[in-house]
């Protein structure tokens, strides 16, 4: 069965947003953020030198890849998509391109991407990786500098303009060649068969760069699906907007809705606005009837634990849908 055929049948998957942003957990120097937890660096405009020090405290000793995969399977999920690098630029895998990664920069020193890949293969769960191919706040030429303020109520920016304020001097091609392409090559060649690569927010990337990135994926993994957020009309399947639940029929295409269990993607300790198992099942069935997959996110904490309410809800979903 090809990945296109598998994806059409999968219906339900687990997305995991996990990184340094789980440490502040939505708070910084006596302030709480209103928006999604993985955007903490941008929301609080934390300088890279200061934000990077979080790595020295990142030691998620309770992380257990098998437990995460078991939870996904218990919920009835067919695949897992893990954030190998989010917009903050910190890699959750061993990278030779940049020492700003979980193996080289933290006391934990383990490649969690490798451990999750192995657990998925061992237990028969398909494995995919998220990679932020445009925004990278750790790089002086990271993208987002052409689009101004974000959707966050117009309060912040897509690009890092607190460390690197001169947008006119930014050249995304430098970031693309120095970091994006080499790291995408790493995740395609180090972690076995990937069912998909999940790219995001393609604001700055050119059509030629998108073409090059898409062909890079197909060079190393011809059957690996690429989502539409790679940009410029490319992609093997459609990623809907965040928490966007379509009402029209999507059965003529490959389509997926990425959604949250509460109101955040990355861990926020004070976000307790959990959807019930009944509501998750309702959304799942609504999407399945329309031929769309449901990619449901969990945000593990700084110790590597999927929050107990998330786990309880997912297990209940599994019990009620078996």
Protein model, in words:
With 322 residues, this protein is of the alpha/beta class. The chain is built from ten helices and ten strands. 32% of the residues lie in helices and 13% in strands. The strands form two sheets. Strands 7-6-5-4-1-10-9-8 form an eight-stranded parallel beta sheet. The chain has a two-stranded antiparallel ribbon with strand order 2-3. Helix 7 packs parallel to helix 8. The longest helix is centred in the middle third of the chain and has 19 residues. The two termini are 24 Å apart. The relative contact order is 0.18.
Report the β-strand fraction as a percent range. Answer: 5-15%
Give the termini separation: 24 Å
Order of helices and strands: HEEEHHHEHHEHEHEEEHEH
Residues in helices, as a percent range: 25-40%
**Mean pLDDT metric:** 97
- The strands making up the biggest β-sheet line up spatially as 7-6-5-4-1-10-9-8
**How does the major sheet shape up?**
8 strands, parallel
Got a strand count? 10
How large is the radius of gyration? 18 Å
| Poorly predicted runs | none
Total of DSSP H or I helical runs spanning 4+ residues: 10
Shape: globular
> Which structural class best describes the helix and strand composition?
alpha/beta
This entry's quaternary arrangement is single chain
Give a short summary of the structure:
This protein has 322 residues and is of the alpha/beta class. It has helices at residues 3-10, 40-44, 48-51, 65-74, 102-105, 112-123, 172-190, 207-220, 277-289, 308-321, and strands at residues 12-16, 27-28, 31-32, 79-85, 126-131, 196-198, 225-226, 238-239, 255-260, 293-298.
């Amino acid at each position: 069965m090809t990945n296109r055929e598998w994806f059409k049948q999968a219906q339900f998957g687990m997305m995991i947003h996990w990184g340094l942003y789980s440490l502040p957990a939505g708070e910084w120097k006596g302030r709480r953020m209103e928006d999604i937890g993985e955007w903490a660096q941008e929301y609080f405009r934390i300088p890279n030198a200061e934000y990077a020090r979080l790595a020295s405290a990142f030691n998620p000793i309770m992380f257990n890849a098998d437990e995460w995969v078991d939870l996904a399977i218990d919920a009835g999920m067919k695949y897992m998509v893990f954030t190998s690098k989010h917009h903050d630029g910190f890699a959750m895998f061993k990278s030779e391109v940049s020492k700003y990664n979980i193996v080289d920069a933290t006391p934990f020193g383990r490649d969690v991407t490798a451990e999750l890949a192995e657990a998925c293969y061992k237990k028969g769960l398909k494995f995919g990786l998220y990679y932020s191919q445009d925004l990278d706040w750790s790089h002086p030429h990271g993208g987002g500098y052409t689009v101004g303020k974000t959707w966050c109520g117009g309060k912040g920016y897509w690009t890092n303009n607190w460390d690197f304020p001169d947008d006119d001097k930014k050249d995304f091609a430098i970031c693309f060649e120095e970091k994006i392409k080499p790291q995408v090559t790493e995740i395609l060649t180090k972690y076995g068969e990937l069912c998909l690569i999940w790219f995001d927010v393609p604001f700055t990337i050119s059509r030629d760069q998108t073409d090059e990135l898409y062909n890079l994926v197909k060079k190393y993994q011809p059957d690996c699906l690429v989502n539409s957020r790679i940009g410029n009309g490319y992609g093997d399947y459609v990623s809907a907007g965040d928490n966007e639940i379509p009402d029209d029929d999507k059965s003529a295409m490959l389509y997926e809705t990425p959604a949250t269990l509460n109101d955040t993607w990355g861990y926020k300790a004070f976000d307790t606005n959990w959807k019930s198992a009944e509501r998750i099942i309702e959304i799942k069935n609504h999407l399945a009837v329309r031929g769309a997959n449901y990619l449901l996110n969990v945000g593990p904490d700084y110790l590597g634990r999927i929050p107990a309410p998330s786990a309880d809800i997912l297990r209940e979903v599994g019990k009620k849908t078996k």
